[in-house]
Amino acid sequence: MSASPAQPKAELLGDTVVVIGGSAGIGLETARRARAKGANLILTGRNPERLQQAASELGARSHAFDATDTAALERFFREVPAIDHVMVTAGRPYYARLADMDFAEVRRVIDEHVMLALQVARSSAGKVRPGGSLLFMTGTGGHPAVGGVIASAMAAALPALVANLALELAPIRVNLIAAGFVDTSLSASLLGGDLEGRRNHLRATLPIRRVVEPADVAALAVHTMTNTALTGATYDVDGGQQLLAG
């Protein structure tokens, strides 16, 4: 007997999970966890070599394309068979003072977050089975800071977008994960030589006394897929970072 879409699913056995940005970091770790729960995987990414390596590791199908290319994204969802869950981890943050801001980079951030979420939602709506889910990611936003205007704007915009999509796309569920610092290769590329100092600071100050890892986010991501009571919500995973002053 198949599980009712109104009841929690203990596993992802037989479900098809698409991870956009699934070749590294949080996306890859979520794919690993979903595969361990019995899911069939379809991974996408921009880097064909890295994507193929991830797909080979997990026994997944893969499609290499830039998710911000609207035509390529629409073609992918047009050609993909029926699916159960879509997670989007593509995109990177941008930090700059207003006086130094590169507006081409600002447009890139808007494309990779707001526009990509809208395009995935519209393109996938006819392919995700009822009771399935869309899952997007943003940052926690944190406290206002010089240079953080774009990151904060994205962190404020995505919860409202997701809540509205949850109503429009029902019974497909739509949720959002807002992550603080996560120890990934992307974080390493952004921080460079400051990475170890940031890790040590977080270990000393976070209430959890450790750095948040991709596996922490992946566990939450899979939970939003399997718990069919969750929709329209934003879930913070930051180790208590937002509780700290300054």
Protein described:
By secondary structure, this protein is an alpha/beta fold. It has one domain (about 15-235): NAD(P)-binding Rossmann-like Domain (Rossmann fold, 3-Layer(aba) Sandwich), CATH 3.40.50.720. Helix content is about 45%, strand content about 20%. It has helices at about 25-35, 50-60, 70-80, 105-125, 150-170, 185-190, 195-205, 215-225, and strands at about 15-20, 40-45, 60-65, 85-90, 130-140, 175-180, 235. Helix 4 (about 105-125) packs parallel to helix 5. It starts with 15 loop residues before the first strand and ends in a 9-residue tail after the last strand.
In short:
With 246 residues, this protein is an alpha/beta fold.
Describe the protein's topology.
Blueprint: E1 16-20, H1 25-36, E2 40-45, H2 48-58, E3 61-64, H3 70-79, E4 83-88, H4 103-124, E5 128-139, H5 149-169, E6 173-179, H6 185-191, H7 195-205, H8 214-226, E7 234-237
Parallel strand pairs: 1-2, 1-4, 2-3, 4-5, 5-6, 6-7
Helix pairs in contact: 1-8, 3-4, 4-5
Distance between the first and last residues' Cα: 53 Å
Give a count of the beta strands, DSSP E runs of length 2 or more.
7
- Determine the CATH superfamily: NAD(P)-binding Rossmann-like Domain
Shape: globular
Q: pLDDT under 50 segments (min length 5)?
A: 1-6
Strand order of the largest sheet: 3-2-1-4-5-6-7
The CATH topology label is Rossmann fold
Largest sheet: 7 strands, parallel
Report the mean per-residue pLDDT as an integer: 91
Estimated structural class: alpha/beta
Strand content: 15-25%
Measured as a percent range, the helix fraction is 40-55%
What is the H/E string?
EHEHEHEHEHEHHHE
